[in-house]
């Protein structure tokens, strides 16, 4: 154990290299492999789809808020929510019962830019007969500051056991690296609409709740068998950047949007995984002073299970 870990042993943390649980060592090895020459794992480079599938249900992603050093759960796998007994997504750590020491551990991670592992008995609710093991790893912004915490946790009683592989059913994959208010508002709206469903219902799209987002919304319908996509609604700020004759046409009939294109691959990933996706693409269209387009794609459904529509929140970057 390093000197720093020894000094904070009262927090119950240890070097992830010394952890005995396979999920922790696997995530830690993934994190190490993604660090750049400066030793940083940039948040903009994180994509949950790069992870081994058996970790997905046990994963959490926490946004670090500088003011007050608060920690907000932005992503939580099925097993994480099950362990806490309720959906913790969107909650701040200090709002969740029994997480006082978790707050201190996360502060340690941010202040020292160090990954850690921990384990011990659960102290909350009716599950205090169980134990947990976890690891928390820092993700960085472009300035090298810790902006998110990536982690994995397992709950068990008796001897630690490995759960069987779980299908991809997490709430979100890659979040925008830029701190854009419109994306935060759109993602928060999607989380509220989702509720207990795997995919938010299209009927839960209430435009009165998203007046600031609506001008930058492009809603696309999913056509199945064979797969295709078609724009159904375009916000006022987006109309100017779209070639008019392409409105309402299938992606498969439009140059630059056909199967195999970057745009198609992003929509296809949302359709297949039911995960929001963020991307940045060079702009090609009728407006000269736009350099690139940022997109946050949010899946919606007719039945709460299968993706039937994709809402794209579009942000334009000017030259």
Describe the model.
It is built from seven helices and eleven strands. The protein is of the alpha+beta class. The protein has two domains: 3-156, PAS domain (Beta-Lactamase); 181-318, PAS domain (Beta-Lactamase). A six-stranded antiparallel sheet has the order 1-4-5-6-2-3, with helices on both faces. Strand 9 (277-282) and strand 10 form a beta hairpin. The relative contact order is 0.12. Mean pLDDT is 82; it is low at 160-173.
Short description:
By secondary structure, the protein is of the alpha+beta class. Helix content is about 20%, strand content about 25%. It has a 6-stranded antiparallel beta sheet with strand order 1-4-5-6-2-3, sandwiched between helices. A 5-stranded antiparallel beta sheet has the order 8-7-11-10-9, with helices on both faces.
Unreliable spans: 160-173
Query: How large, in whole angstroms, is the Cα Rg?
Result: 21 Å
Biggest β-sheet description? 6 strands, antiparallel
Helix content: 10-25%
How many E-type strands? 11
- Report the order of strands and helices: HEHEEHHEEEHEEHHEEE
Strand order of the largest sheet: 1-4-5-6-2-3
Keywords:
319 residues; alpha+beta; Beta-Lactamase; 2 domains; 7 helices; elongated
Secondary structure layout plus pairing:
Layout: H1 3-7, E1 13-14, H2 22-34, E2 59-65, E3 70-76, H3 78-84, H4 100-112, E4 116-121, E5 131-140, E6 146-156, H5 181-194, E7 217-223, E8 228-234, H6 236-239, H7 262-273, E9 277-282, E10 290-301, E11 307-318
Antiparallel strand pairs: 1-4, 2-3, 2-6, 4-5, 5-6, 7-8, 7-11, 9-10, 10-11
């Amino acid at each position: 154990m390093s000197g720093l870990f020894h000094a904070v042993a009262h927090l119950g943390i240890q070097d992830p290299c010394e952890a005995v649980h396979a999920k922790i060592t696997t995530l830690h090895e993934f994190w190490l492999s993604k660090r750049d020459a400066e030793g940083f794992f940039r948040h903009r480079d994180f994509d949950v789809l790069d992870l081994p599938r058996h970790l997905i249900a046990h994963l959490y992603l926490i946004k670090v808020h500088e003011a007050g050093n608060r920690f907000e759960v932005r992503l939580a796998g099925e097993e994480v929510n099950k362990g806490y007994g309720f959906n913790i997504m969107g909650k701040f750590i200090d709002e969740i019962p029994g997480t006082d020491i978790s707050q201190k551990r996360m502060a340690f991670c941010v202040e020292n830019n160090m990954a850690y592992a921990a384990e011990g008995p659960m102290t909350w609710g009716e599950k205090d007969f169980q134990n947990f093991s976890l690891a928390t790893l820092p993700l960085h912004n472009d300035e090298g500051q810790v902006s998110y915490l990536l982690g994995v946790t397992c709950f068990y009683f008796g001897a630690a056991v490995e759960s069987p592989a779980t299908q991809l059913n997490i709430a979100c994959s890659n979040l925008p690296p830029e701190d854009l208010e419109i994306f935060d508002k759109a993602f928060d709206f999607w989380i509220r609409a989702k509720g207990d469903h795997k995919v938010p219902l299209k009927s839960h799209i209430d435009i009165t709740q998203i007046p600031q987002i609506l001008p930058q919304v492009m809603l696309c319908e999913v056509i199945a068998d064979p797969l295709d996509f078609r724009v159904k609604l375009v916000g006022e700020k987006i109309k100017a950047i779209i070639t008019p004759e392409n409105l309402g046409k299938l992606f498969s009939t439009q140059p630059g949007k056909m199967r195999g294109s970057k745009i198609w691959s992003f929509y296809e990933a949302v359709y297949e995984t039911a995960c929001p996706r963020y991307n940045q693409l060079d702009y090609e269209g009728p407006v000269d002073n736009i350099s690139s387009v940022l997109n946050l794609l949010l899946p919606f459904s007719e039945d709460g299970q299968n993706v039937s529509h994709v809402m794209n929140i579009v942000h334009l970057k000017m030259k």
